[in-house]
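Archive maintenance. Older records in this collection stored only the sequence; we are now back-filling the structure field for every entry so that each record is complete. The fields below show one back-filled record exactly as it appears after the update. Entries are processed alphabetically, and UNC93-like protein MFSD11 is next in the queue.

ARCHIVE ENTRY
Title: UNC93-like protein MFSD11
Organism field: Molossus molossus
Length field: 349
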Amino acid sequence: MAIIYGVFSASNLITPSVVAVVGPQLSMFASGLFYSMYIAVFIQPFTWSFYTASVFIGIAAAVLWTAQGNCLTINSDEHTIGRNSGIFWALLQSSLFFGNLYIYFAWQGKTQISEGDRRTVFIALTVISLVGTVLFFLIRKPDSENILGEDESSDDQDVEVNEPAQNNMTKAVDAFKKSLKLCVTKEMLLLSITTAYTGLELTFFSGVYGTCIGAVNTFGTEEKSLIGLSGIFIGIGEILGGSLFGLLSKNNRFGRNPVVLLGILVHFVAFYLIFLNMPADAPIAPLEGTDSSAYIKPSKEVAIFCSLLLGLGDSCFNTQLGSRGCSLTARAVYTETVTFLHKSLLKIK
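Back-filled structure field:
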């Protein structure tokens, strides 16, 4: 995880240039292939292949998320970006529901996970990932008027003939400069604080919390299948939040702040209940698990309820961060485009 997110963070500096040259659709396809490769590594894992694939998926993740953000932006406007971000997040997190639903039923009653069980899961996931990667080619390409508006699109056609052809290196350098300018704006710097928090809580519920649930012997023979059930309820919380806030964003007169505040409250309750319910040695328990208790007797119902709260709170943050970040990007692109058109028309006159 440290390798993936370290490379991911560093790669984000160059990914706008890559997407500008290659285009969002092809960028998503190429990144998807590396995701499939990373999943396939777990069919027969080796230390060297695992770490090497972690480096490649860190680069691919940066390209994929940048391309997806670009694709979401150019297919949205100021009025639809909130709705589209919510729908995107709900669709993205639906994988948590279906994948973990299989794990819950397939691993129910098992205290050890065999090699056959592991291979079955990761072969299926690799095939699904490859199919999903191919489906990137079905994403529509927006018309110019969807991005600029009807008034500007006609002017753009007049200027397009007179615009000098930019080579790929110029596009890459321009995209890099624009991304740096956007990163140091006041709003982006303020958003980075909340974004950093979402990274911490993502690491917790995607890796630590499932490990804790699977290590509590008090849960009996269901402890391993509860990992899948926990993932299902995290997914339900994510889908519920994404769908709800996506549908309500159009009629939300109070803005994004109440949704973010709701996320803070939901996560506060979730983390406090986890603190009371989970033994302190659960994250570092040996293979045999732990028989310790926390401040209350570990409860399966409380553990799964906390999973739902973790997913719901995460969707509160990410739907609003996604729509706000894309809105800022779209506004910056729109302003630069209009300025360019104005200067070009003056030259023509």
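Update note: The longest helix spans residues 300-348. The chain is about 75% helix and 0% strand.
Entry marked complete.
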